[in-house]
């Protein structure tokens, strides 16, 4: 822009003033038209989907009601006593009864369009009565083993719809209806196979832009789809369908992009059948007319832009004439070394250059002054008194203070290096201004969260017992907390002369920081005189150590907490105790505890995997409160680990005992888990870890072992033994016995009897 002539630049500005609002208005109106159209189309599509869903539900419900009415007519009682195909064919009367049932099934087929076949299976019989193959034996008809699995999810006395593929390759939705025990004593079930293509005819939308549809069970299994290769697969794997199901919203719509095509997904959940209905429409086809209207609006906008451009050029020429004359005059009177720029950029650069030169000189002076002052203070703390230091500190008395950030490691984690550097600059700049005018104070950063401050004062402040210094240090503490977002502890040395032993006074102030361990953070600690460490009694709570280990063995965490509180009180009540003494106490507690755990073959690596180095962790803590809190968490994790291991062993015994007592019954695993007091998933994991088998496999193994005993020791029939061990039909018993023993129960009994 700086090289563009001012005339053109001004014309461009005027054009933008006109063009930008017009562009925004055009864009906004077009976007609103598109959005409102999309929403109306989506609402209409959702209403159509709901209408198709209700049509499908009504058709299925009518078919189910016809089946229920047929089941309550007692027509099946005529063949109740004929369990074999041979018995059925013994005389004309038996066969006539079966044909009557067949005629009723055929009539049921004709009541609803799209029924592929219907058959009736008498429980325990070896034949079926079907509309597609007539009256035939089970071995000549399709397998009915799927019925038992399908009925597991049935609720109440009604039937259940099951999508499946027949042996002929035809996809159907089967309605399985066991006969109601309240209306008949006959045991059996009616199965109606409705063609999947009939479901498709109900669900396919008549809207233009049809792209696809899908009908799914609640678990995602596809019941109906326009792509027949996807039937009975997991519908969650289809694009965006899994996302729709996971939302848990029972009906709605959403827009998605797929292969550069914008699609409308509408969905509706059937409360009656617990099915998901999803329709997919192409928005590109549905929005054809709306987009044509949007293109017309854009064309009109372009015409307006063209006319506005001509007007902007004319107006810019008239407005820029005075400025061009001014720039020409300035260039003619002096050479500023600025070329290749337009009139506005020339004037801006000329004034900016003068301002930059002035600011540069000012910053250079301040930086040199700050560096010289910091170097003089660092040398003074080392014992080197320079002329700069003497000029900075003209009064006879000095105090050295150390300002330490509490919980420095937490502060480092919360602030990056640039932020910490800025905080140091603010603190050094602000704290020097907090002291009275007759007190000279300067601060420098020492590293690791420590600031050294030299305070120089005269006879007047000394006569007031340093009241001004005390008040200023309190203000320094408050200012530091505001800047760092953390409390600080301030250690203050004894007074000294400027030419005295300044390094020793700095060491005194640093020693006072260690008193933070006992007194807590956010304190101002003044020099208390040297302690005669040789005459002080060394503190170590040996009795508490032994009691803590005993409480650890019994899992008594409350008593451990009390012992930790007693240790803390003993430290606080000591007449004198050093920082090193305190750290030794807690390091020794850690070492003894870890040694005790390892001697008892307890894996400390698993307990403390997330804690890192525990010794380094306590070394970074500032106060007794933090040490006690850390030790509470330390012992809490140990107790939790030991309790969890004991709890798993106890739960395992209860689970195995329960299964061994109730394996012959129908066990609902969720209720079993609640009775034991654990979750179902946790119970499955415990059983697998104890037995190496799943819950189902373990129960079936118990049943088969009991069945083997009954086969050899009793004369019960196969059907009686199956019922005795918990199987409700012989087919299931035979299938599981073959799975675990490799032969039929009758073959097993014969083989073992012959061997004996």
UniProtKB/TrEMBL annotation:
Keywords: DNA-binding, Membrane, Transcription, Transcription regulation, Transmembrane, Transmembrane helix. The keyword Transmembrane applies. Residues 653-751 form the HTH araC/xylS-type domain. It comes from the Bacteria. The keyword Repeat does not apply. Coiled coil: none annotated. The chain crosses the membrane at residues 6-28, 297-319. InterPro entries: HTH_AraC, HTH_AraC-typ_CS. PANTHER family: ARAC-FAMILY TRANSCRIPTIONAL REGULATOR, HTH-TYPE TRANSCRIPTIONAL REGULATOR EXSA. This is Helix-turn-helix domain-containing protein. It comes from Paenibacillus brevis.
């Amino acid at each position: 822009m700086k090289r563009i002539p001012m005339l053109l630049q001004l014309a461009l500005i005027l054009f933008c003033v006109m063009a930008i609002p017009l562009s925004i208005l055009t864009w906004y109106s077009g976007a609103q038209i598109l959005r409102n159209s999309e929403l109306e189309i989506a609402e209409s599509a959702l209403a159509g989907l709901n209408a198709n869903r209700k049509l499908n539900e009504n058709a299925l419900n009518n078919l189910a009601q016809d089946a229920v009415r047929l089941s309550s007519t007692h027509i099946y009682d005529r063949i109740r006593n004929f369990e074999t195909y041979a018995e059925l064919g013994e005389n004309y009367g038996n066969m006539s009864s079966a044909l009557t049932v067949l005629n009723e099934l055929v009539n049921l087929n004709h009541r609803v369009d799209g029924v592929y076949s219907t058959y009736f299976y008498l429980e325990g019989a070896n034949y079926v009565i079907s509309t597609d193959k007539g009256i035939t034996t089970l071995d000549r008809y399709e397998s009915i083993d799927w019925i038992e699995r399908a009925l597991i999810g049935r609720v109440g006395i009604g039937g259940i719809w099951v999508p499946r593929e027949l042996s002929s390759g035809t996809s159907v939705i089967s309605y399985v209806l066991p006969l109601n025990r309240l209306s008949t004593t006959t045991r059996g079930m009616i199965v109606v196979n409705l063609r999947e293509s009939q479901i498709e005819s109900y669900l396919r939308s008549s809207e233009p832009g049809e792209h696809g549809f899908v009908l799914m069970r609640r678990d995602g299994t596809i019941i109906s789809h326009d792509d027949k290769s996807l039937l009975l697969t997991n519908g969650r794997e289809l694009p965006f369908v899994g996302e729709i199901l996971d939302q848990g919203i029972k009906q709605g719509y959403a827009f998605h992009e797929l292969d550069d095509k914008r699609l409308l997904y509408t969905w509706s959940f059937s409360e009656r059948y617990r099915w998901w209905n999803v329709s997919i429409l192409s928005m590109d086809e549905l929005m054809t007319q709306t987009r044509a209207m949007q293109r017309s609006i854009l064309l009109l906008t372009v015409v307006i832009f063209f006319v506005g451009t001509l007007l902007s050029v004319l107006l810019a020429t008239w407005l820029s004439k005075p400025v061009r004359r001014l720039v020409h005059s300035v260039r003619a009177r002096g050479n500023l070394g600025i070329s290749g720029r337009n009139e506005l950029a020339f004037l801006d650069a000329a004034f900016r250059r003068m301002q930059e030169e002035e600011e540069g000189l000012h910053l250079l002076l301040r930086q040199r002054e700050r560096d010289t002052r910091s170097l003089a203070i660092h040398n003074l703390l080392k014992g080197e008194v320079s002329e700069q230091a003497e000029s900075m500190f003209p009064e006879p008395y000095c105090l050295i203070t150390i300002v330490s950030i509490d919980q420095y490691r937490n502060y480092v984690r919360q602030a990056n290096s640039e932020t910490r550097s800025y905080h140091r600059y603010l603190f050094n700049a602000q704290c020097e201004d907090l002291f009275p005018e007759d007190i000279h104070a300067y601060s420098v950063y020492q590293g690791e969260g420590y600031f050294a401050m030299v305070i120089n004062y005269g006879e007047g402040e000394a006569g007031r017992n340093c009241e001004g210094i005390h008040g200023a240090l309190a203000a320094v503490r408050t200012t530091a907390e505001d800047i760092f977002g953390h409390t600080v502890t301030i250690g203050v040395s004894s007074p000294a002369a400027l030419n005295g032993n300044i390094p020793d006074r700095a060491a005194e102030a640093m020693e006072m920081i260690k008193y933070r361990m006992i007194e807590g953070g956010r304190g101002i600690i003044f020099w208390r005189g040297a302690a005669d460490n040789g005459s002080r009694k060394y503190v170590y709570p040996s009795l508490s150590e032994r009691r803590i280990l005993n409480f650890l063995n019994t899992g008594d965490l409350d008593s451990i907490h009390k012992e930790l509180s007693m240790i803390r009180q003993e430290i606080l009540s000591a007449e004198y105790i050093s920082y090193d003494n305190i750290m030794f106490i807690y390091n020794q507690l850690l070492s003894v505890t870890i040694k005790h755990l390892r001697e008892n073959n307890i894996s400390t690596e698993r307990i403390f995997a997330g804690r890192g180095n525990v010794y380094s962790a306590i070394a970074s803590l500032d106060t007794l409160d933090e040490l006690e809190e850390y030790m509470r968490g330390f012992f809490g994790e140990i107790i939790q680990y030991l309790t969890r291991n004991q709890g798993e062993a106890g739960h395992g015994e209860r689970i195995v005992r329960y299964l061994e007592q109730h394996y012959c019954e129908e066990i609902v695993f969720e209720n079993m888990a609640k009775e034991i007091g654990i979750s179902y998933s946790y119970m499955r994991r415990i059983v697998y870890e104890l037995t190496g088998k799943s819950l189902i496999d373990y129960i079936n193994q118990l049943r088969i072992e009991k069945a083997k005993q009954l086969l050899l020791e009793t004369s019960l029939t196969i059907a009686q033994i199956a019922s005795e061990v918990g199987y409700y039909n012989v087919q299931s018993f035979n299938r599981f016995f073959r799975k675990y023993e490799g032969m039929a129960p009758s073959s097993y009994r014969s083989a073992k009897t012959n061997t004996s």
